[in-house]
Amino acid sequence: MLSRLTRPQAVAVCAVPVVALLATAALAPLPFSVAQPGTTANVLGADKGTQVITVSGAPVRRTSGQLRMVTIVATGPEATVTLGDVVGNWFRSDRAVMPRDAVYPSGDDVKEIEKYNLAQMDESQHNATQAALKYLGLSAGKVKVDLKLADVGGPSAGLLFTLGIIDKLDGDGSGGDLTGGRTIAGTGTIDPSGKVGAVGGVALKTQAARRDGATVFLVPKAECADAQSELPKGLRLVPVTTVKSAVDALVALEKGKGPVPSC
Questions:
Q1: Per-residue pLDDT of the chain (263 residues; tens, 9 = 90+)
Q2: How many CB atoms lie under 10 A from the CB of residue 116?
Q3: Which terms are listed as keywords in the entry (predicted)?
Q4: Residue 6 lies in a domain
């Protein structure tokens, strides 16, 4: 025969499965990735001992400033992200909790993801070369551009590759550096016509840029609000929509003449 439980006893008994449920939820894997600011690289210089941009078939000018492409680093598709990880990183300005599908749209297989990202990078480099040569009015049949950047995948360096090629071949169009000697960073995809596209993680990328000395950050115009959300002190945002708008803004900054767009 079962004895009747008092109210405190009943509450205690009921609390056991609730606590167990909460503990299980806290440890259960969730479909998220945790991202943080990654590395940056000066596309006008060398990366791991190899020049990022090599041009043949046309005179190449010496540059003094920097054009830094930026990255974010995220937990891998096979990593376990729990409720505790989500809660612990949600309110950190140097972390972002993102849906795993947004970070790894090609699936969960690591080799397939690497293959996909490298293909995206190859396409980005091809588009950057086409966009730069088209902007300069040069023939791809006469000018050859080779782009190399180790351990980086995806399309988000397209804009910076394009500007790097332009700076090496033409600068600001009058003999000066496109950068004006500054450290310029930025992000954005590029298509062969020179149109700049949006990317992810811009709030984290601005932090990586400022950490590595940038004072100006070129951001796809559609992502101004995201870039402003955690903007580091001392970093100026310049929204762009095309290669021409980016070049015009940088020339205006360099010469101190003409309007410079802002978010």
A1: 444 444 444 444 445 454 444 444 445 566 788 889 999 999 999 998 999 999 999 999 999 999 999 999 888 777 777 787 777 777 788 888 877 777 777 666 778 877 888 888 999 999 999 999 999 999 999 999 999 988 788 889 999 999 999 999 999 998 899 999 999 999 999 999 999 999 989 999 999 999 999 999 999 999 999 999 989 999 999 999 999 999 999 999 999 888 899 99
A2: 17
A3: Signal
A4: no
Instruction: Decide if 101 is inside a domain.
Output: no
Number of domain units in the chain: 1
Task: Give the closest residue to 10 by CA, choosing from 100, 101, 169, 18.
Answer: 18
In whole angstroms, how far apart are CA 125 and each of 11, 45, 48, 121, 175?
Answer: 64, 16, 18, 6, 25
In a domain, residue 61? The reply is yes
Please check whether residue 15 lies inside any domain of the structure: no
The reported pTM is: 0.83
Q: What is the CATH number of the domain that holds 241?
A: 3.30.230
Q: Which domain holds residue 223?
A: 37-73+107-255
